[in-house]
Write a sequence for this structure.
């Protein structure tokens, strides 16, 4: 194990997750994040002077930085692979295509920095990331998207994280890949793709999530997982375009998604 | 990135987490795990025929496979580093020593298989893992515990996972490191240590968690994180003693612990 | 308002609810009750020296003393009135027959004390409350069951409240009205009926809730609400057989039940 | 029981609660209300063709129409009666002054309709209900506030219920009793007082809940419970000024408040 370990030991770990706290941006379709200490130190002291604190957490599979299971989205009454939802959804969640069926992810990662391509801190709400954007940024960064990659698309939107209304973008919309860009990712047979916004997609101003074509193309048609609410600012600042990508979804049996804390490993 | 990636690409990923589902074993000190689908496919169909499902989750920082933050345990009124809990615990959780301060973990991992050392599927409840056990199993497996390692101690207890009463071990107790073994780990200055039981510690039959000396020594005195409720059966079956260990705690701001899905990367 | 008020003012209010706390008996079909203080006094002190504490609660519509909505149970694919569940159940709960459609209940109440009839503190698990029991206890107490009444059936089971395993009665079963007694209540066109156990019904030892005929007869066929987990000990001790019964279900939109705190008003 | 029952039987029950549903107005200090069906009909069908649906609920003691326990607010480090919070607050909630110590409430009720006094549908945000308002409305309605009453103060604010931003009134403030009116209620030794807004108090525009003098005077100094988020529109429309008031707080052990569904009983 020596050689690989020496390399990993000298690699730098870059955190790609947003913090989870009460009041953070959450889509109104999902439960607001709650965390409260149940026990605090001093509440119950053991005979030997020890004391423990703990918490209760209310959350959802699509709250904070998270990954979508294939059970999440259906189109015209069918999930990925033509599975009918009614045959697999119940009080136990989904008996197929749930997030617990997703193996831990360790693969090559590529970031395509569309904000940097356009020389802006963050793209505007409603901006459609196009195929040209994807290809030009790959060219600019001298990186190639390959089969099985994790492709992270930076719009700079994570800068709005501390302003929940701006981050959710009800009025402004959010920037993201349109139908053509989603098709491009699908044709490149990537393993997964991720972005910083709450819905990954291009959302036009003031229209809400009326249609979600990228979810249809990626999750339903191609079986490609989507990661949302990433913080790509540190990775972008590292000036690295390819890296080892690691994400380990919680084994939430039957769930349609899971909070994760993905990381990028880069040469230090 | 070529060389390291080639090696990683050919490595095998071993999952070290238990699944999370309603009815799974949870300590009565922590909230029972709950997951319910909020929306199912068909509840709300968008104009284009798309539909999404999602869930609500109730859990705790110490539910399922999880890692303890240093905020979790205090001794004689002090946390690790002599911090007074009242100065940092509030409705916002802990302003220091919370789980969000734990960087993603990528380090060398070592498994010490005490069950295999004794030639049993699982050690008995109440069995104390001794320093001799740790050293003999390291010798038997020809592996050395080094500074900064993740040291996983296998008792075989995860075989009781599907029987919550047996797993929690209220009557039988659970096997685990005693005070001396915890001291040994501390003196080896490991980065973290993990086990399969709900409390890591040796719990004598029918005594409950009256005292938790390993938590005191590791968390409070040494600042060494503890992982509980691991499933080490697949790793043990792989016959590998050292590996790359990866665990990425969720950034639950102010929390005393986090569910995780740790993995071991081994040469395929 | 004078006359009625003078009478009410001199009436005695008898509490018919069990307390709600972590660790209390809850059916495994329902979420365990959780309550944790979010803010404690001192966490956030306002400029004027004021401070507030509050809590987060996780519960269910059938946790603690509660009332069943007609949406709760179906038989052969149909709810009360022949309504098909799929047409009214969604992410919004039930669009018909939900607990919010139940008006506040103020009606005549009658207690039938079957435990007293048999001269025991509590009937045995698995004991079937028969039509003869209902009629004999009414005769013994010189009270008549009339159309529109709230009929409370005392088995003495609430004495097991502080022992969750005994209260749930997995091994012993629980006493309760059998099919014939449920039919009798239905024929008397009562407004609702209540009992002390977790499922109202006769549950035979070690058989679980395999079939629930009283729920079918009362909820589905007759549209009669059922209250479970009452504490009838104080009412029984008052030696009163008829009273004013008041229960006000929370307006949980679309829910299948609600926690309540029912009361009996009796002449002081 | 005949006479009183005949009167009650002919009385009209007026519901004073708002409905509870996802997305309803909740103060950001409290957990957002969540309700999701866990089981739907058809998920698990028993051998006899029966099926049940149920839900999981996340809420708080101060969510929806609710009543404040005396444990809710402290002033200068002391609760009502000079109790020090640290001696009674823990992981178990409050060992004194919790909502479970509040007996079911059956008392004379009086509504003072300040909106009607001023001839408006609803008073403006930031409007201070004065002592003169209370006295003039009592005079106009020919009703007297007496010791032990439940005094409900109508501002018309419940008309904003379906517009959460307007109801919470972050920008506009909310109308309510000022310090003098709270003192007046306290001097009249009422049993409790209630209103339609989320905080009962006069909240000036854009200032948030910086200080809450009515809570201090009523809860801390006088031990008078406060009910918030009532819907007084139906009661106001009934043109009745005095009534029998009934409210039964859930016995949430150690909690600082409870959701309730209060009612008014009036002559039909």
């Amino acid at each position: 194990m020596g050689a690989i370990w020496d390399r990993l030991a000298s690699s730098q770990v870059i955190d790609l997750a947003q913090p989870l706290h009460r009041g953070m941006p959450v889509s109104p379709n999902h439960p607001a994040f709650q965390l409260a200490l149940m026990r605090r130190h001093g509440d119950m002291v053991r005979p030997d002077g020890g004391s423990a604190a703990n918490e209760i957490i209310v959350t959802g599979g699509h709250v904070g930085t998270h990954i979508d299971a294939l059970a999440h989205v259906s189109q015209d009454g069918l999930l990925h692979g033509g599975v009918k939802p009614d045959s697999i959804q119940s009080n136990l969640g989904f008996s197929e295509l749930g997030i617990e069926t997703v193996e831990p992810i360790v693969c090559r990662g590529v970031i395509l920095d569309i904000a940097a391509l356009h020389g802006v801190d963050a793209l505007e709400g409603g901006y459609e990331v196009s195929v040209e954007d994807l290809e030009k940024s790959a060219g600019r960064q001298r990186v190639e998207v390959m089969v099985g990659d994790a492709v992270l698309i930076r719009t700079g939107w994570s800068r709005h994280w501390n302003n929940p209304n701006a981050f959710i973008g009800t009025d402004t919309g959010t920037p993201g890949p349109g139908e053509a860009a989603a098709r491009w990712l699908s044709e490149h047979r990537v393993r997964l793709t991720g972005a910083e916004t709450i819905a990954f997609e291009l959302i036009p101003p003031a229209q809400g999530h009326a249609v979600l074509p990228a979810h249809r193309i990626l999750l339903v048609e191609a079986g490609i997982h989507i990661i949302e609410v990433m913080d790509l600012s540190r990775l972008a600042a590292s000036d690295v375009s390819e890296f080892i990508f690691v994400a380990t979804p919680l084994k939430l049996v039957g769930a349609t998604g899971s909070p994760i804390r993905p990381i990028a490993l880069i040469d230090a």
Observations:
- DSSP finds seven helices and 17 strands in chain B.
- Chain B has a mean pLDDT of 95.
- Chain B touches chain D at residues 34, 36-38, 40, 55-56, 58 (CB under 8 Å).
